[in-house]
Structures are given as C-alpha cells and as structure tokens.
Design goal:
Pfam families: Plavaka. InterPro entries: Plavaka (IPR041078). This is Transposase domain-containing protein. It comes from Lentinula lateritia. With 743 residues, the protein is of the alpha+beta class. The protein folds into 4 domains: 216 residues, no CATH class; 54 residues, no CATH class; 152 residues, no CATH class; 231 residues, no CATH class. Helices cover 35% and strands 19% of the residues. The protein has 22 helices and 29 strands. The strands form 8 sheets. Strands 13, 14, 20, 21, 22, 26 and 27 form a 7-stranded antiparallel β-sheet that branches. It has a 5-stranded mixed β-sheet with strand order 7-6-3-9-8. A 5-stranded antiparallel β-sheet has the order 11-12-15-16-19, with no helix packed on it. A hairpin with a 5-residue loop joins strand 8 and strand 9. Helix 9 packs parallel to helix 11.
Length: 743
C-alpha cells in the first residue's frame, strides 16, 4: 500500500456508483472496481469508523518449469490487494503482485494410494496457512501503515478473493470435484437453474462438520456436501467467507469449458455432417485482423490456446445459420451472450439483468439437445459454476479483475525466469534467491527514479505490456483527430495509380463520376476538368494508401484502454515467376467498416446514422485537382440497418446496395469511418463449393453483422440495441396502460 508508484491508482474506502437518476433518486447501480461492490461495504460496517480495509487477493496455480524433458514443476502463491486498480493489477510489469512462496510439488509416495489424495490436499492447506499466518495472528487488530499518498492509516488486512482453477477451488473448499466449491447444490442438480439449490456454503457450518468428522461422529452433512477430511487454512481468518472468495475462471470455465468443450460440440453434433459442414464454413469465413483464420477448420486443431478459443467463439454462431435447428441457435446465442457479458469491465444492474436473462434462455432451450439425442443430462460442474458470475460481480466487482490468465503470465517472471537462471539442481532455493536479488535491484531502481529527475532504469526481464502492433512510430506518419476517433496513415503514400488502374485493379467502377460528386458536395472546385466518361484517363496519378489505422477510444464497459483498428485496401497481385520460383497470388484485402452518415440522435437508437460499407480504395486527392486535408476512401455501400435483427440469430441482416442495377458507391473522407466490422455470410443449408475466404465478400449476396468480433461490438450492437428496443416496448406498454385508465 505504501508503494509511491501506485499513488492515485489506489482507493482506501468503498463507494457506490450509479448510472442514472430517476425523480432525484440514484438508480441502476454500477459495479467495476472492488471498492464499488458489496463485500467492501459489508466488512466496512463491521469495523471501526476510521478503519481502512486492505482486501487481500491470493492466487495459486501449478506450472510446468521444464520445457522438453523432465517433470519439474513449481506451485507459486501470489498476493495482491484490491485497493489497487484492476487495470494496474493486470500488468505484470506494474509489480502489483508479490510472490508469497512456493508450495512443494511432491508425489507423496510415502502414503498409500487411497490416502495420497487427501494428504496432498492437507499439505496444500498447511502451506497456505503457513504463508498467511500473520493475517491469522493479527486477527481484527489494525496495523498502522504508510500509504502511497503519504497518509498513515489503520489498515485491516482481510482475505477477499482467491484466484484458482476449478480443481484447486475444490481443494480450497474441502470438497470433491463433482461438487460446486461455492454452493450446496448436489451433483445431480447441477444442470438445473434453481436459485434455491445454489445457496452458498456456510464457513462456520463447514468447519463444524469437518471437526465432527475428525472426531469420528460421521455427520450426515459430510457425505451430503461431498466433503473431504481436511483441516482448512481459512477457518481462523477474520471476517472470511471463503466460499464467496472463489472468483470465476473465465478462460477455463467459460471459453474452454462451457463453450468449447460443451455447447459448440453439442451444436456440431446436432447438424448433419456436423464436423465437415462447420469446417467448411470456418474455412470460408471472411478474414479480419483480430480473428484467427482456421484454414483447415476447427476439427483438425489438436492443441488450443486461449486466443484460439476466443477466435472460434467470435464466429461460431455465424457458422450455424441455415444449418442448425432454431432452438440450437438460440442456445448457442444465449451462451455467447452470457460469456460476453461476463467480460464487461463495468457492469450495472441493467446489464447484470440482461446477463441473467441470457443464462435463463440457455437453460430454457437446452433440452433441444436431449430431443436430438446429443445429451441425456446437463449435470456438468462448469455449466453450473458459471451461474454464480452475477453474484460474484455484485460482491467483488467485475471479473476482469480476477483473471486466471494474470497468474499464468506471472509464472514467466516469478517462476520460469528464475528456473532458467538456475543450474536445474535444488532449483527452488536458487529461484528464491534470484527473485530476492531482482526485487532488491527493482527497489534501488525505484529509489533512483525518485531521487534523480529524468532517470530511466534499464531492467532486464521486465515485460512490455503493450502489443507490438498497438501503435505506429511517429516517424513517417501523420495523425489527425476525429471526435472521438483518431486515424493514422503513412506520411508519404506508398503507391500511385492511374484512374484506369484504380477502376480495373481496385474494382472502383465509375471512379471519376464519384470523384466529381464528392468535389461538388464539398464545394471544391477542380483545378483541371474531370472527364467523367467511364474508362478515360485524363487525370494525374492518385497517391494510394495500403492501410489506415484508427485509434478507437476507451469504453468503460468494454475496454479501459484505446484500441488500434486497421482498415485495409489493397489490390489482388497475380502469381508470377522469379529466379527463385513461383510467387503465389496475393488476394485483395478490403475491410468492411461502419460509417457515420448523419448526426447522432440517441432517441433513435445506437445504430442511428451508421451504415456499413466496404472500403475498396484509400487515397489522397492530388494537388493538381484540389486540396483536401484528409485522405479519402472509395466505399461500396450495404443497405441501411433494418429496424430489428432477424429472429433466433438476433443479428442484423445486410446486403449490398444497388442503384439502377449498379453497385452503390461513394467517395468519403476517412474521418467518417468509425471502426471496422466483420460479417458472417448467410450460408444456407450447405456451403457453396466455389466460395473461399478470399472471394466470399464478392460472391455472397447476404450477410449478418458479427456482434461478437470485440467486446465493444457486442456492447453496441447487442446490449445497447436490445436495451433500446426494450425501452421502446416499455413505452408502448405504458402508453396502453394510460389509455386504458382514461377509458
């Protein structure tokens, strides 16, 4: 708490935040950081008025140290505090986490096979208890601490959250792996959506039951709750409800568990020739810079990473259209909605209710898999565990503050780097010593930065948290601000092309006609005559850009930091021979974007004034013709958004716009481009054999807007639009009620 680097990045008291006011009363409470949630308020009420809570966050995860041979593992335990902003905790280089110690990794061969599992579980609890013994000894006595803002406070350190995967959560909860580590639901009820069966386990009750079991009384609850005979580390911790401390594991529970292992697998089995058909659809899916393209489909992938799970989920719903039963589509859509709501960085009661409604839809429609003989029951731990997500958010804050991927990243700096620096013998001792030296160097570097203005420490092994593609170098680029989007292009356009080349190579038909229209609409007088007769080339070459980078602004619910979005516009390059052999054809790369075509009117919904277009060309107006400050884009328009999304898929249907049987195109300033988007092709029952990912935007005529491309897309096109439609429906109902009263 006293680290000056965290000044203005820490909070010391809870607060309640609200999104709106109704009749002077705050409503629609907001949850984001831990200090905005209920747990902090609840414990604050039990402490003296001048008390400052330090919410302790523990995390542990076993990791492999040896790469190719051997079976050397480490089991680090990390600690952070909830006073620090979650965005800071997510960055390993911020050093908001410290290593408490390593749990021994042993096969425990000295025990018989039937006792080995319980002995390993007890060893885990004993080690954790040893590490947090100061918290137990201190109890509810305060500690005077100097904080990062220079004030001294009476601090109460209380265990608030524990980040662990499901097997480790069961170990902490002293229960078997067919149980929920948080609530009392029985294994055969895990597939139900019944709040009455999801009551949290009570620590006092569990400790009492474990004590009676150790004394030989064999209480009935021990068997009913599938408990293990363990002396838990948490039983003497003050104000600790360990079962509420369990935080969700989005990667393993939601992405890999519920969606990849279960829902997507069931959906494929419900389709005729499921694997082959779904693979064909993945192969022909239009590309996007943020998506991994599965060139061979997904059934051939043998080793999945977190990024691949996410890329698969982003387009999976689009592969079901036309092939799957409508009820299957609704189940998959509900699961995806719940997963994307889980990733919100800022929630409110309204979004939490929408999240809970999505999970109710999942349970209401899931019986279709029983009817199709894909499943006979849904008593799966991960399907049940995600039910607790809204409760976790209201209690401890949004789930991005408790991501298990953070601990996996910490393994690199606090476990694997030390192992690589050792001689691989008695490596735990050497790893500990190496870390102590690194921390000493870091402390001294921090002191030098404070003592010497402008000093920049050169530390090895400090990770760069920024993506290497997230920003451009200032050299060779120009930047212009659009409210609120910024764009970046090359300072000198890398290409030049004649009008004939533009129309033929970039498929920018009637380019001169649209250019003349643009100049007229913007009140620009051309310095030379523009011959708009199709095919004639009387104009100077046009400077062309290959790409445009947009800097999308942060959105509290979806992204706490700005995001780089790349718009591409390149022509197809035919295959050609060189001295080294054949160079394969390079397909054209064009981006689909959202364009602001008129002013914003919130009363008409989040999609008002926005239209989808395909960027065919990025260029700058030659000075010989006219002067215009911003680069321009030649775009091919899609029809405006329909009033409502299509049924079941709940996606907006799109098709190209035509005028007098010709594609409807325009030339627009790039400042009108809001962001890129992604389209699902409307496949029908089977995939057209001539379609590929390179030509599908040309050959397919109907598409659906992908709302799962990024969390900001889901927020705009699914959540906000759904809330707008609901508000309009509520207005109609209220109007009918008032009219009925008058009658």
């Amino acid at each position: 708490m006293g680290n000056p680097a965290f000044n203005e990045k820490q909070e010391y008291a809870p607060r309640r935040e609200f999104r709106e006011m109704k009749n002077g009363i705050p409503c629609n409470r907001q949850y984001s950081e831990m200090w905005t949630a209920n747990w902090w308020w609840n414990v604050q009420d039990k402490l003296p008025e001048d008390a400052t809570v330090a919410p302790i966050i523990l995390a542990s995860d076993e990791t492999q140290l040896s790469t190719f041979s051997g079976d050397k593992k480490a089991w680090p335990v990390y600690l952070s505090i909830g006073n620090i902003e979650k965005a800071v905790r997510r960055k390993p280089s911020s050093r908001a986490w410290v290593l408490l110690g390593y749990i021994p990794v042993s096969g425990l061969d000295c025990y018989s096979e039937d006792r080995r599992s319980d002995a390993g579980c007890q060893l885990f609890h004993d080690c954790i208890k040893k590490m947090i013994q100061p918290l137990i000894d201190k109890g509810l006595a305060p500690t005077e601490m100097a904080c990062s803002d220079g004030f001294i406070r009476s601090v109460y350190a209380l265990l608030a959250a524990y980040i662990a995967d499901y097997p480790e959560q069961c170990r902490i909860a002293c229960c078997k792996r067919n149980s929920c580590p948080q609530c009392t639901i029985t294994p055969k009820k895990r597939g139900c959506l019944e709040p009455a069966n999801s009551i949290y386990r009570e620590p006092v009750d569990i400790v009492d039951t474990l004590a009676k079991q150790s004394q030989g009384y064999n209480p009935s609850k021990f068997k009913t709750l599938n408990m293990l005979p363990i002396n838990p580390f948490w039983k003497d911790l003050p104000l600790c409800h360990i079962f509420e401390c369990m935080t969700p594991d989005l990667l393993h529970q939601m992405h890999k568990g519920v969606f990849a292992d279960h829902v997507s697998s069931w959906a494929k089995k419900s389709i005729a020739n499921g694997d082959e058909e779904i693979d064909a659809r993945f192969r022909t899916m239009p590309p996007h810079p943020t998506l991994r393209h599965f060139k061979k489909g997904i059934s051939k992938v043998t080793q999945w990473t977190g990024g691949e799970y996410r890329s698969m989920a982003k387009v999976f719903l689009g592969t079901l259209g036309g092939a799957a039963d409508a009820r299957v589509i609704r189940v998959v859509r509900a699961a995806e909605d719940y997963m994307y709501y889980s990733h919100f960085e800022s929630h409110c009661e309204e979004s939490l209710e929408a999240m809970e409604a999505a999970w109710k839809t999942f349970h209401a429609e899931k019986e279709v898999f029983v009817e199709l003989r894909v499943r006979n029951q849904f008593n799966i731990s991960k399907v049940h565990n995600v039910l607790h997500y809204p409760q976790n958010i209201r209690s401890r804050g949004t789930l991005d503050g408790f991501n298990s991927e953070t601990t996996e990243r910490l393994h690199i700096d606090l476990a694997k780097a030390g192992y690589r620096a050792s001689n691989k013998r008695r490596y735990i001792v050497q790893m500990t010593q190496w870390l102590q030296r690194q921390e000493a160097v870091q402390r001294f570097a921090s002191y030098l930065q404070w003592a010497i203005p402008g000093y920049i420490a050169e530390l090895s092994g400090v990770a760069n948290d920024e993506d290497e593609d997230s920003s451009d170098s200032a050299d060779g680029s120009e930047e212009a601000e659009l409210h609120p989007v910024k764009y970046t292009v090359a300072r000198r356009p890398p290409l030049r092309a004649s009008v004939t080349s533009i129309e033929n190579d970039y498929q920018a038909d009637w380019f001169t006609w649209y250019l003349d229209e643009f100049l007229t609409n913007h009140g620009l007088a051309s310095k030379i005559p523009i011959n708009i007769q199709h095919g004639l080339n009387t104009l100077p070459p046009f400077p062309l850009y290959k790409q445009l980078r947009l800097q999308l602004p942060p959105i509290p619910e979806a992204a706490s930091e700005s995001l780089t979005d790349v718009v591409h516009a390149t022509k197809r390059i035919d295959a050609f021979w060189t001295e080294k052999g054949l160079v394969k054809e390079i397909p054209a790369k064009t981006s689909v974007v959202l364009v602001r075509v008129m002013g914003i009117d919130p009363s008409k919904g989040p999609l008002h004034g926005i239209q989808v277009a395909r960027v065919r060309l990025l260029f700058r107006l030659p000075s010989e013709i006219a002067s215009f400050h911003h680069p321009l884009a030649y775009v091919q328009w899609f029809k405006p958004f329909q009033k409502d999304p299509v049924k079941d898929l709940n996606l907006f249907k799109l098709s190209y716009s035509f005028r007098q049987h010709y594609p409807h195109c325009s030339i627009i300033p790039v400042t009108q481009i809001i962001q890129t988007c992604h389209l699902y092709p409307a496949y029908g029952r089977t995939v057209d054999a001539t379609w590929t990912s390179d030509n599908i935007l040309d050959k397919c005529s109907t598409f659906y807007l992908n709302v799962y491309l990024r969390h900001r897309d889901f927020l705009q096109f699914r959540h906000r639009n759904s809330m707008f439609i609901k508000s309009k429906e509520d207005e109609v109902i209220e109007f009918q009620r008032k009219r009925a009263r008058r009658a």
